[in-house]
């Protein structure tokens, strides 16, 4: 009797939770891949049972203490207390064809002009990189190029479906303006739900290629994860991209921990003129999903990545470190390793053949060095991990 009552009660609770989840599935959460899309995902070497997985084991993170610190911790340095000097841009600035020019617009959002074409990587123009303002991941500055001023694009290129890279409102605004959308497996389900026509979406597995207006886009491995809701962890793939033209070659690492995939990218696709390298939002306890500045330098070396252009920093408060620390550390590590680096202001265009010298446009704030706060991905051989650290020391 008591068992059946428990079963009934359990069923009611499960039904209520399920109903609540269904009601909560606002469009911003995206859509679950199904049908032919899901069949293709299941055939991927990266698919394992019900989700994608990384080849290297992932050290767990997200302890209760870390979550508490995420919401309430920090020392006041995590967000700027004065306006960030952005470079305001308009559509007219991007009319002349470029061999290779990169305009960092904040976080992962980067306008890439290559061989006369224009690509936009991970466009996020909303105020929040979260399901809504409730979760409070607000940007530090207005986009230096307004969405209405974005020039005609040949494609949008996406690395994965996290909120700070794939933005519902931005996709809706660009859906009928952009002829091609290139993304890792499964991400197209979100795009379709948000109004991008299915025949404009090209989904790639790692090492797959898409051609866009004469540009080769190679989907490269990354060590990360995905998900926008409570029930979809790793149900879409994550990646970096190599952007290859006769005149120029660019690598974008995407989000992720350090791993042997960087040397494989270098062997198969390098050398590159420049690399958009993820340098921020790191922490020792989640070093398998965000590599941090010193390992980013190492990644650029291994990928034969050319000029290091840091991204994934200075825009959203997503970790415990001071907001300027990724820039300070990547400059130190790059100089120690002899890797060329430049740190553009938001909105500033740089040409990798003639990069500007590093100029500190951010304030001088206290920050922790690699020795004080090391970030080392797990599962690597000792030599690689040691090199990443010693170069930063
Ligand atoms: Zn991510």
Automatic annotation (TrEMBL):
A GO cellular component annotation in the UniProt record:
cytoplasm
- Any idea where the Metallo-beta-lactamase domain is? 117-313
**Name of the protein this chain belongs to:** Metallo-beta-lactamase domain-containing protein
| Organism of provenance | Rubrivirga marina
């Amino acid at each position: 009797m008591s068992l059946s009552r428990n079963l009934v009660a359990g069923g009611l609770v499960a039904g209520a939770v399920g109903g609540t989840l269904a009601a909560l599935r606002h469009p911003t959460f995206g859509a679950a891949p199904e049908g032919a899309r899901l069949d293709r995902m299941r055939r991927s070497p990266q698919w394992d049972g019900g989700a994608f997985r990384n080849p290297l084991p992932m050290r767990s993170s997200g302890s209760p203490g870390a979550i508490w610190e995420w919401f309430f911790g920090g020392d006041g340095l995590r967000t700027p207390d004065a306006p960030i000097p952005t470079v305001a841009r308009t559509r007219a600035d991007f009319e002349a064809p470029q061999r290779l020019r990169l305009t960092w617009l904040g976080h992962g959002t980067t306008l890439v002009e290559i061989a006369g074409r224009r690509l936009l990587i991970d466009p996020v123009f909303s105020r929040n990189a979260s399901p809504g303002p409730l979760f409070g991941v607000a940007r530090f500055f207005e986009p230096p190029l307004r969405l209405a001023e974005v020039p005609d694009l040949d494609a949008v290129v996406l690395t994965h479906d996290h909120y700070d890279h794939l933005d519902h409102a931005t996709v809706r605004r660009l859906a009928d303006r952009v002829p091609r959308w290139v993304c890792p497996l499964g991400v197209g389900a979100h795009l379709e739900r948000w109004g991008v026509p299915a025949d404009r979406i090209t989904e790639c597995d790692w090492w797959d290629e898409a051609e866009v207006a004469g540009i080769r886009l190679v989907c490269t491995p990354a060590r990360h994860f995905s998900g926008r809701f409570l029930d979809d962890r790793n149900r879409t793939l994550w990646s970096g991209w190599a952007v290859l033209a006769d005149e120029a070659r660019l690598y974008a690492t995407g989000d992720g921990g350090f791993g042997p995939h960087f040397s494989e990218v270098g062997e198969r696709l390098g050398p590159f003129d420049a690399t958009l390298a993820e340098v921020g939002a790191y922490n020792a306890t989640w070093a398998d999903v965000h590599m941090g500045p010193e390992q980013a330098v190492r990644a650029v070396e291994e990928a034969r990545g050319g000029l290091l252009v840091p991204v994934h920093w200075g825009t959203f408060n997503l970790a415990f470190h001071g907001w300027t620390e990724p820039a300070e550390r990547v400059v130190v590590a790059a100089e120690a390793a002899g890797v060329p680096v430049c740190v553009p202001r938001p909105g500033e265009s740089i040409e990798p053949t003639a990069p500007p010298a590093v100029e500190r446009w951010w304030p001088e704030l206290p920050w922790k060095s690699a020795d004080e706060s090391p970030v080392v991905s797990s599962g690597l051989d000792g030599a690689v991990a040691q090199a990443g650290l010693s170069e930063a020391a």
